[in-house]
Amino acid sequence: MTRMKSKWLVLFIVFGLILTACGGGSDDAAEEVVADEPAETLDSPATTAAAAAEPDAPATKVCLVLDIGGLGDQGFNDSAYLGYNMGIDEFGVEGTFLEPDEGGENRGELLNLCAEDGNDLIIGNGFLFDVAMAESATNFPDTNFAITDSVIDPANARGMIFAAEQGSFLVGVAAALKTETNKIGFIGGVDIPLIHAFEVGFVAGVQAVNPDIEIDIKYASVPPDFSGFGDPVKGKEIALAQYEAGADIIYHAAGGTGIGMFEAAAEVSASTGSKVWGIGVDQDQYLTIGGAIPEVQEFILTSMVKKVEVAVYNAIKDTVNGTFTGGPVAEDVESGGIDISYTGGYIDDIKDEIEAYRAKIISGEIVVPSSR
Amino acid sequence: MNELFRIIKDKYVILTPLFLIIFIAQFEQYSQLTSSGTFGSALRLSIPILLAGLGGLFSERTGVVNIGLEGMMIMGTWFGAWGGYMYGPWGGVLFGLIGGGLFGLIHAIATVSFQVDHIVSGVAINILAVGAARFFNILAFDGIAFASSTASPRIEGEIGKFNFPYLSGGKIGENETTSLLGNIENADIFLVSDISALLLGFTSNISYFTILALLIVPLSVFVLWRTPIGLQMRSVGEYPSGSESLGVNVYLMKYIGVIISGCFAGLAGAYLVLEGPNVYLQGQTNGRGFIGLASLLFGNYRPFGVLMGAGLFGFADALQLRSEEAIQGLLVVVGVFLIMLTIRNISQRNIRGSIGTGLLGSLFLFWFMSSTQVPIQFIYFTPHLTTLVVLSFSKQKFRMPKKVGVPYKKGELN
Known about the structure:
heterodimer, A: 372 residues, alpha/beta, Rossmann fold, 6-stranded parallel β-sheet, 6-stranded mixed β-sheet, 13 helices, 12 strands, B: 414 residues, mainly alpha, two-stranded antiparallel sheet, two-stranded antiparallel ribbon, 16 helices
């Protein structure tokens, strides 16, 4: 009897292990390769160098490593994936894309795996890759690296940074022109400098139009707690409080938490009878969140669009053409990597004013602050 | 009259802070302390914690530690979303319950039948649930628009909400009624308005799911303390070999307890999905299962105690999310309360106690007077701190089930 039981137990544990492993997604097989490979082979970039040197080499190989959240976040991972696909379609490059595991501990392993695999360009999507990529880029000096939202030291690594404050300024202008209560809200995901740029730019945009508008600022969590990027329940409660306090437009820079804000906008509009708005971030959320959740679509005033796909596409293009450079490459309203969305047509009537401000930013007449 | 004095004398530790909060809330900048919006928000934030805590209660009363509540809650979020997608919101509720219960069953098999260490099995459940939810999500929703490895498609329809007629402006048939409580809240009468704000928060915009969750509290009391099976379940947590000698099926009772535990944790997960964004998102539970476990300890293994613990945490969390000024008001409450305790300690010649409370109290008051803004980290920490402070100053004696966490083998004498 006991033996029978212990057999069941073994079966149960094995089944559990299989299930847990399967959760990692399609890259598991690839990860195991890394574990089996001895560490000494890491420093052999021979194949890579050959491929990069010959322009007639069969095909350029590109590797994209997404950050936690993964594909389908309706935010910057999906954007990066879009740019990666644009590159593949246009230049016929050979592509691999990987997602890190739950906590993202294997970022470094995945980058090294891509480098060993002879890729010409390796993209790490997100500032959390900075330490791991600096190490990989030093170990593989002949491979091109690119990182989103951060700048790292090695000369072969490009920092794809975005002037999010400029786009936030533009949506701030839109909010200030559209508010009827002279009260506006901002919801940040986590209280970190990257998100401060959104806040500061937004506040500057609102105040450029009307300095008397009151702005209610709230972050969903403070580091080291990063849950504020994925907690729609908190997003909803914060937004409800801000709408109740009289705000009629709220801008979020909070990832998945923002879904709760749009839900709150729909709920408050229905219960009070007067329409309140939410402003999206990163992607044109009228199409992404509004597409997934049709009930909230009519409450999405506009979005601050951060075109990660443009930067990723450019990195691929430059690698194919052999014009890839390291160091910071900034996308802003001038280059088109940062934009405001007019989808839905709710801000078409103030388009002229917004475009006037965009021209002033481009001409340098207005310098948008990016830190507190 | 004497009766009233007696109650005040006995319960002043609870009554004074409440009175202080109401008093402070009269000032405009601290009004969020007792607004109906805060109470409504507190209720919504505390329900998942309450359900997880009640889940823990059933498991631990039968002697099985359930640190896997978080994992069972994760299964509740996924199965809730899947059930909701297939069969509508109430299907989501049912499947959330089943999904959590399924993982409760796994925990029961491991801990009861195989006498695996309860903590080890619980941790395994938590790890397994994260991967399993992702795996199921890819399996079930592959290729469906707007779904991904970390998010499910949206659930159509929602669980209804209602307002009580006359009290908070609900409808009778098609006719709107007045909101009596709303009018009283707006009248700004000391104490009366604050109490009606509390009632308004608890009677307006209430989801049927919330009612269901709240009904489980008295139901748990009834089942555990007023029915034969409840007595058997509790006896198993206290003295399993004695129960067995009296003919109680110890294993069966433990199984029932742990499965119910999983079911409630699953309900908590389904609540997060169905009362939140109506989609499953990876990492949606955010450690609420562990807070539920804490509220169980706070509530001294009693359903209404769990309700108090979850409510307190939810209230502090709501305040924290809604108004940073109100947190400052809370500082005054804590400071004044500690000073009052000091006076009591001095009158009772408890020198050491009075020095402690006096120092702490003056520190809080000094902090309040000297700063215009509470440090931001402190604000986010408020729910945890409040719970900690209340726990350390309430004079209850904790008593956990005697044999909780001890693996029991049939026929064993322990």
